[in-house]
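can u pls check wat happens w/ S-adenosyl-L-homocysteine
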Amino acid sequence: MTSERTRARMVERLRSQGVHNEAVLAAMGAVPRHLFVDEAISSRAYEDLALPIGFGQTISAPFTVARMVELLCAGRSLLKVLEVGTGCGYQAMVLAHLAQEVYSVERIGALLEKTRARIWPMRVRNLRFKHADGFLGLGEAAPFDAIIVAAAAPQIPQALIDQLAPEGRLILPVGVQKQRLVMVERRGGEILESVLDPVNFVPLLGKLD
Ligand code: SAH
């Protein structure tokens, strides 16, 4: 249930769902998703489901991760990336396969400690975590070529737009009751916004826990 073959089947399913970027598919095929959830539910890790990761949070379904990451890297290579909402660290790990440098911030300290302990033995050199409020981005490492948010904001946090490098791209779910994926791009002096798929994420919350 947790073998390479199961992961290969997940990749084929993602392909049939419309994910075409080979680098993204390879990253999804390489990261052992079952190691990012509790053992009791690890047999379900490769189904197209969001799963509980404790602290009232969930790991996004594989299609959601693949779709967002594909949008983030369409037509370019990823250099410095910020992820808001580390959770169990799965998406951060997928990003670490694709980008030169990944920063990931999480507001729940205890969840981040659990994730750090899980990822430490995997020896990922280009991934850094920080206990911080993602509404504020991560000024100390800005600007970012790409920012991806794993929780829904009521509106687009201005700090995230401000921390986009020229030609940078931000992907995030926006909305309270009804959420849509939104892509924000910085093009020269202009900020372009596109509203994409309906989605269903846990809320982006302020103040650290
Ligand atoms: N990418 C994660 C998905 C986690 S769910 C994964 O692969 O598992 C979203 C996460 O966003 C939760 O862990 C939640 O605690 C976190 N979060 C919510 N609001 C936040 C904020 N303001 N700053 C940082 N993290 C936040």
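The chain has one domain: 4-199.
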